[in-house]
Amino acid sequence: MKKILLATVALAALAAPAAAADLAARPTYTKAPVLAPVELWTGFYIGAMGGYATTDNGGLLSPKGGLVGGTVGYNWQSANWVFGLEADAAWADIKDSVGGVVPGFGAVSVASKMDATGTVRGRIGYAFGPTLLYATGGYAWADNKITLSALGVGVSDSQFLSGWTVGAGGEWMFAPKWSVKAEYLYKSFGSKSYFGGALPSGDLNLHTVQVGVNYHF
């Protein structure tokens, strides 16, 4: 019995240094720290944009056409959330016309042309690193002209339109300080009267798809 006990103690003594050496050789792991999102989007920006607009007013005229202009705005990023304010203004060529022959008047036509439009909007989005997805909405404006022609004579009346807009888009920071974006905006201006109230226009609603490039300060 004493021999068995001595043999057991001897084996335990020999195994202990080996076990300690094995534990020391094993690598130790520590949990990686959680990194806060990099704030790529905070700050002022300025850019250029262009797009195409169609209407869904369902009236006699359905203006459509292109636009090109500029953008200025500011973003504030908190974690992955991005809040912003943006304004844009564009020259436009959104137009349509109809005509026919009226007995006693000859060729008669009615034309509508929007030559400028813009918005002032809030934005809220979620950033996936250099990619930002956002919703937007706010105030929209436009300058629209109606022209009536008959007997070879044309008369025009321009009105400033005020309304609202809502939409969504995405933006990608493709290089330091530079981003590209694409967005859809729905603009509603309601109805307006021309020529002293003699010609109501009906509702004018625009569907606008536009793209742009921005420089961030």
Q: Strand tally, please?
A: 10
State the helicity in percent bands: 10-25%
**For the CA atoms, what is the radius of gyration?**
33 Å
SSE order in H/E notation?
A: HEEEEEEEEEE
Assign the structural class, choosing from mainly alpha, mainly beta, alpha/beta, alpha+beta, or little secondary structure: mainly beta
Oligomeric state of the chains present here: single chain
Round the mean pLDDT to the nearest integer and report it: 84
Features:
elongated, 10 strands, mainly beta, 8-stranded antiparallel β-barrel, 66% strand
How does this model look, in words?
It is elongated and about 70 Å long. It has a single domain (35-216), classed as Porin. The chain has one helix spanning 2-25; strands spanning 43-55, 64-78, 81-102, 106-128, 131-150, 153-175, 178-188, 193-194, 199-200, 205-216. The strands form 2 sheets. Strands 1-2-3-4-5-6-7-10 form an 8-stranded antiparallel barrel. Strands 8-9 form a two-stranded antiparallel sheet. The chain has 217 residues and is mainly beta.
